[in-house]
Amino acid sequence: MTGATTAQAVTQAPTALECRDLAKTYYSTDPPSEVVSGIDLAVRRGGFLAVMGASGSGKSTLLYNLSGMDRPTGGRALLEGRDLTSLGDREMSRVRLTRVGLVFQQASFLRTLNVRDNILLPALKAASGKRQAAEAAARGDGLMERFGIAHVGRHGITQVSGGQLQRASICRSLACEPSVLFADEPTGALNSSMTKEVMDALTDVHAGGATIVMVTHDPACAARADRVVFLRDGRLVDSREFGAWNEEEAGRREDDLITWLREQGL
Ligand SMILES: Nc1ncnc2c1ncn2[C@@H]1O[C@H](COP(=O)(O)OP(=O)(O)OP(=O)(O)O)[C@@H](O)[C@H]1O
């Protein structure tokens, strides 16, 4: 494929996620604090967006308001063209369960269930009927194989490593076949070898066609994305575009991002 054709394909790819003039003000503080504002963003289907910025710049808030975890106080957030801001609470819960995957810094699992049962829980909850439940279980098992944790499926939550738990968290999200996978500092609590494990898993998910939005402080993680945006004081002030991920370019991409972040004052 030529460069021009690739660019054309990218611009014509359908949008998975979009927001227009998105704003979030917390009224629980006195005075109310406007944490993000004026955010215009579109992520194409199959895109991998990394969100960076200083601590407190509004990255997690943006992610919560794009994913339906929270409601914006201004503007609109659209998932697969559907305006999340117009949905009632029940519809929103359904969207969160079936269309959105969430991976957090600290994976939260039920200690009373083993790893496999935790992974399957939301997908089985979303399934209607035995056939869909069997399909969901097969999907979960396939994901555990793919991400190298099938052998710890029967282990308790406290009997696996942090990297395995984060891969389990990714499997749990993907078992529901979300349209977008949102990850908030997915490697923030991991050492460097576990960080690589988890980023390899996310890179693999992306290569398989998934759309990912990830908040990260780590340039090595952001280098896996095809686009990186920078938030300052709740506003989107700059962005950087990369081509498809290529392991050989990892160092160059990370260096490029470190220089860019310094220019942004980080
Ligand atoms: N529920 C809330 N109520 C009031 N203020 C909040 C709430 N959640 C976040 N904030 C404030 O909003 C600002 C942005 O927080 P947010 O967590 O989005 O930033 P962040 O860029 O993700 O930070 P970090 O990198 O430290 O995680 C912070 O000042 C935070 O204290």
- What order do the helices and strands follow? HEEEHEEHEHHHEHEHEEH
Task: Characterize the largest beta sheet: strand count, sense, and whether it forms a barrel.
Answer: 6 strands, mixed
Percent of residues in β-strands: 15-25%
What is the correct CATH architecture? Answer: 3-Layer(aba) Sandwich
Secondary structure: helix percent: 25-40%
Rg is 18 Å
Instruction: Give the count of helical stretches.
Output: 9
Q: What best-fitting shape do the alpha-carbon axes yield?
A: globular
Bound chemical compounds:
adenosine-5'-triphosphate
Distance between the termini: 37 Å
- The low-pLDDT segments are 1-11
Nearest-integer average pLDDT: 92
Compose a concise summary of this entry:
About 40% of the residues lie in helices and about 25% in strands. The chain is of the alpha/beta class.
